[in-house]
Amino acid sequence: MAELLKGAPVAAAISEELMKRCEELKKKGIIPCAAIVRVGERPDDLAYEKGALKRFENIGIEVRHFVLPTDCTRSELLSVTDTVNSDSSIHGCLMFRPLQDRETEKEACKRLLPEKDIDCMTSGSLGSVFTGSGTGFPPCTAQAVIELCDHYGIGLEGREIAVVGRSLVIGRPVSMLLMQRNATVTMCHTRTADLAGVCRRADIIVAAAGHAGLITSEHVRPGQIVIDVGINVTPEGRLTGDVDSASVEPVVAALTPVPGGVGSITTAVLAKHVISAAQNCA
Q1: Which of 47, 61, 90, 209 has the fewest CB atoms within 10 Å, i.e. is most exposed?
Q2: What is the average pLDDT across 134-149?
């Protein structure tokens, strides 16, 4: 049976390091602070916000809330964005998306300063992921994959990795981060010819296509490491990943669970970006 690569130990180790960094900043008179910008009361936003607030509180990061009604105007949201940009005591900003008004969302994304963008919503941040330089931070989930590999001693240099998924949120940015670690990456997707063959050739599979149970025993071989980034909800309301764990777990060497895997690392990465942004300001 595969070793289960759980996310909780990874998040705990990151948080422990961040507490020390936070204390060092406070000794210099810098209090790390994150702005949370939320439009409406979506249950998934509130659930993630609750987890982020708990993580921030444990580490010592202060939070400023900017909550707007669902029917807020574009000027109201952009005014909040300008406030976050101009307030030097705010080091990072998490803005919940998607918004009902996609044009307003695009404007807000353009407006936010990349150096305060802690979850890669701006084009400047995304550009830094693809170029390996500049301001801004990678998407938290993509970075969480790297943090998990580092924690469990999974070497990436020279390894062949199949990334199944091509979104700007996970698939493409995680491919760039892996290549920055000198991995050889094949970025594929649900329409890739012989997807099973491509996956079997890889040393590591990162499943991030957003299709429940896409990766089965047909796609894997003994000795592989499978990192499941997918979060899907079954008709019965159960969380499941992109990997059919029942058929894959008996075959591969290691597998991340869903829930309890990569997703549980994201708020720790979010906090890490806030601390890094505060240090950059310092």
Answers
A1: 47
A2: 94
